[in-house]
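step 4 of 6: structure.
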Amino acid sequence: MTRYKLVIEYDGRPFVGWQRQINGPSVQQAIEDAIEGFCQRRVTVQCAGRTDAGVHALGQVAHIDLDHDPAPDTVRDAINYHLKPAPVALLAVEQVAHDFHARFDAVARAYCYRIVNRRAPLTVDAGLAWRVAAPLDSDAMHAAAQGLVGRHDFSSFRAAECQANSPVRTLDRLTVTRDRGRIDVTASARSFLHHQVRNIVGTLCLVGTGKWTAPDLVTALEACDRSAAGPTAPPDGLYLTAVRYADEKIG
Amino acid sequence: MTRYKLVIEYDGRPFVGWQRQINGPSVQQAIEDAIEGFCQRRVTVQCAGRTDAGVHALGQVAHIDLDHDPAPDTVRDAINYHLKPAPVALLAVEQVAHDFHARFDAVARAYCYRIVNRRAPLTVDAGLAWRVAAPLDSDAMHAAAQGLVGRHDFSSFRAAECQANSPVRTLDRLTVTRDRGRIDVTASARSFLHHQVRNIVGTLCLVGTGKWTAPDLVTALEACDRSAAGPTAPPDGLYLTAVRYADEKIG
């Protein structure tokens, strides 16, 4: 058996999420079907971060085992061929050690949340960003966001259905930047709770519109209660941008 | 009658192009239908640059006359409301002089052509960029592109069906920039010939792959013959980004 690491990009719109589910097409199924087309064998794909319905990835990572050892570029091109027309593509494939694990070996995950801040509805970005009509003060959002960085109990930003054992996470970085009408919220941590980034973004927008102050955000964090924080931002704007392993730089 | 200037964004994928045609939906028709929904009156929309099927706009400009004088923001929001679910949106509306003409008063038009240079097929960018699998030397493309800047007979880069009286145009700016796998070709001129940007981009890719040199590009220009230049790049990557009028800065 040969183990391969896959770096995957996808448009989350047509999928019920990464994980196989009975209620619709998943990214995992699309990739497993493509591998079956290529190797005539059912293979399980293990990913680093299971994204929700409608959430995109620019740098998801997964691993697979094949019982022959084709060249990595052949694996990439063959799986991409069989993935068509699903909006999923392998950007890179490399052979890795037999004990490499995409999920358990990941030391950091990075997400970007794209907001388009304007009155007009989205056109080219529809489904690929969240349009917020009310003017947002991105500097205030960035300043307030720093109150969430570090090791905290993130229960206030955790989905009810989250299956993690602990609500404690260490947020390494949370930045809010603006380029004209586009606001990007980027977050990185070893791991995230379910809906953590979307709940943080939805709450930061309360700061951006001036409804909340930076201390209000800290109060919400300290409440350790989901109802103390703001709404969940829609999946449209969320991208898993990179997964980092020991001795690697994040993209 | 009150004249309004509209700044328009659209996703060109579902349209036969800007202009009304009998063979499918056009951007012009979508906007004229939306205005009729708002004013119960048929109004003709005059645009600055008629884009082809599949070509996008981030800053198309048009003008309309209304027989009452609603506030510009009301016009924007009402037309946007009636445009749904078409991927067309008015970004800005302003009242202008009665003799303002979106097409004839334009002093410059700017286009951006987006290339994604990689082996893997597109996912989130499908239909919104051109994927070129062969590695492109964007510095060589930029250097060669400077041979096209200035006033020239652009017959070699002009579609057979182009209706302009003269093939002579003054290309004010043509730049090729790269950000990792993304290459942007930006072009600005008072006006362009039909397919001029797409023919330039298709030909610059011959330079990017090393098939052509910078002098080959000048030879193609000087031939004044469409068959001397390279292929037409697909519409997917082309965006009309801005139209400038006297005393305005381009966006």
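step 5 of 6: annotate
 - Chain B has a mean pLDDT of 96.
 - Chain B has two domains: 2-96, 108-244.
step 6 of 6: archive
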